[in-house]
Design a protein that fits this description.
single chain; about 300 residues; mainly alpha; two-stranded antiparallel sheet
Length: about 300
Amino acid sequence: MPLTTARRAKRRGPRRFTSRDLAVIGVLLGIPILLELALIWGPTLASIGLSFTSWDGIGDIHWVGIDNYKTLFTDYPPFWPAVRNNLLWVAFLGLVATPFGLLLAVLLDKGVRFSRFYQSTLYMPVVLSLAIVGFIAQLVFSRDQGALNAILANGHDPVDWLGDPELNIWMVLLAAAWRHTGYVMILYLAGLKSVDPSLKEAAAIDGASETQTFFRVVLPTLRPVNVIVGVITVIEALRAFDIVYAINHGRNGLELLSVLVTDNIIGEASRIGFGSAIAVVLLTVSLGFIVTYLVQELRGGKKG
């Protein structure tokens, strides 16, 4: 019996895929790849091509070269305010909301009382879309019927939080950060739970303070989470659209590149070529941030 079993095992060799196996693999891999090409890369390449044309969506497509980009950079007033606001979104979410989410995660990881309740409460805004957050912001920051002016007792001289171009961008950023903080908190909390407790114990034995232990021991182990949080933060900041459109259609100080794309492509002007040029600029900025961040993190990971 042992000899027969050995001979059979020797004869088998590497398993060969049957035609049915290949068909199943082709379906499982082919459908996602086709959907990726049709829904992501197809429209992306089409936008790049259309950005060099003039087209209203109905008539003939006319090649204009880089004229759309020239007009965009030199003779389109909303463009540069939108770029500034998008960069402000990246800075605010990255330098304010993300560190605050990390702080909350660290506090909750210590096992404070009612931590489950705090986690649920802080994470609740994440399940809301940015459009809903925009409507909530209107209820809070509205000039005449907003809760903030009612609390501040500014009924006789109310502050126009959402109408003043000098203030509304900051109010919107606060509302967006309210949602983003909970998301970051959950990601970092999951990362902190996976940190080996022996590392903290070893640092404490060596005489490291709690702050030193966090920055020199715990934070470096969170590098994979940092990459995810960084990419998500950039994407959330650059694709922001719903909240400003819900408040005032992205005008009067709330201009964003995503709003300009929508206004030009599906607005009354129907300048699909020009709107595609704005979309390409937004894509380039997004890839620039994400690729740079990932390269820096991967280099740091190899050194570590």
